[in-house]
Amino acid sequence: MKVDKRKRIFEASLELFSERGYDATTLPMIAEAADVGAGTVYRYFKNKEALLNELFQEYIGRLKETISLNYPENEEDLTIKFDHLFAGMVQFADKNIKAVYFIDSHSHSHALNEKSTGMYHSLLDIYHEFIAEGQEKKLVKPLPSYALIVMVFGAFIGCCKYIQRGHIKETETLMDHFKECCWDAISL
Known about the structure:
- The protein is built from eight helices and no strands.
- It has two domains: about 1-45, Orthogonal Bundle (Arc Repressor Mutant, subunit A), CATH 1.10.10; about 55-185, Orthogonal Bundle (Tetracycline Repressor, domain 2).
- Helix 1 (about 5-20) crosses helix 2 (about 25-35).
- The longest helix has 29 residues, at about 80-105.
- With about 190 residues, it is mainly α.
């Protein structure tokens, strides 16, 4: 079965960017990991920056779609909204753990273009709106929105890394307990 070369380049890029970072990854490395010639990479992507941006936009779009799907926007109970957002992060990470690391390590990259940055901020808007609602209802700590996002998303990424490294044993209830801890960290 013939595997799409563009898809192989995309997958190799995700792997290398998430492990090594943008600056330490070269197009020849990507070509080698994708098992294609260096010229093939240029057939699909103008340069490394274009590849990074396309990859970033793809995964930011997927993450936003995952957490937005059936989001209970009109729900009054803020914990139900938090549960939904957290479950979306878990669902996305279960299928795309390398993408989670990639997004985290490249969300402020100098190589991101305006479209990528705009998509990232559009994703964050979901969290900012949730926090604003929680603060208005006096259910969420009166800290800057970004600080609260870092408390949840940063802790989530750290937990995923420790699970992947084998330092935390994943159990059926681990993420439920972790979600409770994250809610406790940001709620009043």
